[in-house]
Amino acid sequence: MKPVPPIAAPGRARRRQANRVPVPVYAVLTLMALVSVFPLYWMFVVATTDSATATTLPPTITPGGNFLHLAELVFTIVPFVQSLLNSLVVATTIAVGQAVLCALAGFAFAKLSFPGRNTLFLVVVLTMTVPAQLAVVPQYLIISQLNWVDSLPAVIVPGLVSAFGIFWMRQHIGSTISDELMQAARVDGATTWQIFWRIAFPIVRPAAYVLGLFTFVYAWNDFLWPFIVLKSPENYTVQIAIKALQQNRDIDLGLAMSGSFLATIPLLVLFVFVGRRLVQGIMEGAFKG
């Protein structure tokens, strides 16, 4: 006799049918993914050929074999390795600083009582409506008074705290940390700093992790402020090094795209290792919020 195949439970079968995504949805998601990835692919195509590829009609969509030569030119014309290290230092320091300092400020706004708390938080939120370009002149004057022009602290310090980061952490801490938990910690003799560092911060660490990753990407791709304050090639961040590849008014698109692709590789590697945790942190914050 042939063995009788096991019969799936009705409830399990219904759950499988409910979780099954329709084929049209898969098709739309695949199309959106291809549209999102195509600019990166096109950048790689231009980086492996020359400037003519970007202006040829019909355009060439297959990679060439010129990438290693253009990459060698990138490392020869500008100190690209040093620029990558500078960007790594700047982006990592800003990301860690925002994760900790914004969490600390969000904890104060969410769980501590002090005069003017709501008014001060409203001022912080309103600063998000001000374009960042308006702060360039006063920010540069402050940096100049501190003698930080043409140094990495000029790029790092202004980015250690952001209004969005404070708002993000305040909302997450307010919905995650209960007042009863804080009262129990105070009964046990914990100070405010101990409550934050040993209780609150470990609980909201996924939200701080997501904030740090977003901040890292933003700091890595930032161009305007580093372009204003950094003058020496040894202090360039990677985006300024790519700008330095352009000779006067002539733009070699193949060379520029090669540098841009090399600058994108660290971000791709980052998302390969932390992408799942990033999505998990976002979803966790969404459900808790």
Automatic annotation (TrEMBL):
<keyword id="KW-0813">Transport</keyword>
<keyword id="KW-0472">Membrane</keyword>
<feature type="domain" description="ABC transmembrane type-1">
    <location>
        <begin position="84"/>
        <end position="274"/>
    </location>
</feature>
<dbReference type="InterPro" id="IPR035906">
    <property type="entry name" value="MetI-like_sf"/>
</dbReference>
<protein>
    <submittedName>
        <fullName>Carbohydrate ABC transporter membrane protein 2, CUT1 family (TC 3.A.1.1.-)</fullName>
    </submittedName>
</protein>
<feature type="transmembrane region" description="Helical">
    <location>
        <begin position="148"/>
        <end position="168"/>
    </location>
</feature>
<dbReference type="Pfam" id="PF00528">
    <property type="entry name" value="BPD_transp_1"/>
</dbReference>
<keyword id="KW-0812">Transmembrane</keyword>
<feature type="transmembrane region" description="Helical">
    <location>
        <begin position="88"/>
        <end position="108"/>
    </location>
</feature>
<feature type="transmembrane region" description="Helical">
    <location>
        <begin position="120"/>
        <end position="142"/>
    </location>
</feature>
<comment type="similarity">
    <text>Belongs to the binding-protein-dependent transport system permease family.</text>
</comment>
<dbReference type="GO" id="GO:0005886">
    <property type="term" value="C:plasma membrane"/>
</dbReference>
<dbReference type="InterPro" id="IPR000515">
    <property type="entry name" value="MetI-like"/>
</dbReference>
<feature type="transmembrane region" description="Helical">
    <location>
        <begin position="253"/>
        <end position="274"/>
    </location>
</feature>
<keyword id="KW-1133">Transmembrane helix</keyword>
<keyword id="KW-1003">Cell membrane</keyword>
<feature type="transmembrane region" description="Helical">
    <location>
        <begin position="21"/>
        <end position="44"/>
    </location>
</feature>
<dbReference type="GO" id="GO:0055085">
    <property type="term" value="P:transmembrane transport"/>
</dbReference>
